[in-house]
Write a structure and sequence with these properties.
Mean pLDDT: 96
Number of strands: 17
Bound molecules: adenosine-5'-triphosphate, magnesium ion
Distance between the termini: 5 Å
Helix content: 25-40%
Order of helices and strands: EEEEEHEHHEEEHEEEEEHHEEEHH
Low-confidence stretches: none
Shape: globular
Strand content: 25-35%
Largest sheet: 6 strands, antiparallel
Number of helices: 8
Radius of gyration: 19 Å
Structural class: alpha+beta
Length: about 300
């Protein structure tokens, strides 16, 4: 069963491109990662089998290990436990399997904490145009996908539509205050370093990633999804070649197909997207499952996920 959208008996807080977020009560949220997939900021019509479970279970896997590094929002990513804690969800147990995370509800800091170990995406675009990132100069002579040592902390604000906007660190300090800005940068660096180190022996480069933080009861919490393919760039290490864009571990079959449709003049890059062939959906599903298996060292248990 794939799940493209959900309708649970809770108050819907937000439907993102991929996640449906519900309020359980004042202190708890239910985050449900659907099987929706987006590319080039457009959500596809097809759902990708097991993608939602990969996102949620990978986040849970990281959070378990980050216990000593940062406090986080996860209460449970186990559907049986979630149903025990929120009995109204019992009729939806099957749908929740693997996909749902019960979380402490935080007041969200309105900055996306992006940390980049390699120069890619919007950072590469800006660097190419002006040698800067969010207006700050970077060393000369960097190439596309060059490694950045030390990693670059490059906050952004979340745009309601389209691309997020990179902001300067002084701007971030204005938004969240000096003390919080310093703490969020420190935490982002520590979590990224942990993730990149864990991914490396698995043959995956964690090129960059985005964290969100909130606060609750005077404590800073890591929230949202954590070091998933949707919030990060995962690159196959054995194909890494600076000076060009890198294949994406997870979405490359999808991107290649869409690029082909664009070049053929059959798609203008905006919604609605073209219909995806079943083979592209299958290949994307296989990539997500493979990313999970490689990173965690064990396959995602799909037996219980109908
Ligand atoms: N513990 C939490 N407390 C409060 N808000 C949270 C928590 N965890 C996540 N969120 C919020 O949940 C929302 C998830 O919606 P979001 O729009 O990011 O969905 P998405 O599917 O990831 O879409 P996109 O791909 O556009 O990011 C975010 O706004 C995030 O700040
Ligand atoms: Mg998001």
């Amino acid at each position: 069963m794939t799940v493209a959208t959900t309708a649970l008996p809770l108050a819907l807080v937000r439907r993102g491109k991929v996640r449906d977020v519900y309020a359980v009560d004042d202190t708890r949220l239910l985050l449900v990662a659907t099987d929706r997939v987006s590319a080039f900021d457009v959500v596809m019509a097809e759902a990708v089998p097991f993608k939602g479970a990969v996102l949620t279970q990978l986040t849970a896997w990281w959070l378990d290990q980050l216990d000593g590094i940062v406090a986080h929002h996860m209460l449970s990513a186990d559907a049986d436990e979630i149903v025990r804690q929120v009995p109204a969800l019992a009729p939806h147990r099957q749908l929740l399997g693997g996909r749902a995370m019960l979380s402490r509800r935080a007041d969200v800091f309105p900055v996306e904490c992006v940390i980049r170990g390699y120069l890619a995406g919007s950072a590469w675009k800006e660097y190419q145009a002006s040698g800067t990132l969010a207006g700050e100069s970077l060393p000369a002579g960097l190439r596309e996908s060059s490694r950045l040592t030390p990693p670059l902390f490059s906050p952004a604000t979340k745009a309601e539509t389209g691309h997020d906007e990179n902001i300067t660190i002084p701007r971030m300090r204005e938004i969240v205050g000096d003390e919080v800005a310093t703490r969020l940068e420190r935490l982002s660096r520590d979590i990224y370093a942990f993730g990149a180190r864990a991914a490396e022996p698995r043959g995956i480069i964690l090129a960059d990633t985005k964290f969100e933080f909130g606060h609750s009861g005077g404590e800073i919490l890591l929230i949202d999804e954590v070091m998933t393919p949707d919030s990060s760039r995962f690159w196959p290490a054995d194909q890494y070649t600076p000076g060009r864009s890198q294949p994406s571990f997870d979405k490359q079959p999808l991107r290649d197909y869409l690029d082909g449709e664009r070049r053929a003049g059959r798609w203008n890059g905006e919604a609605p997207p073209p219909t995806l062939p079943a083979a592209v959906v299958e290949a994307t599903s296989a990539r997500y499952l493979d990313a999970f298996r490689r990173l965690t060292g064990r396959p995602l248990d799909t037996s219980a996920l109908a």
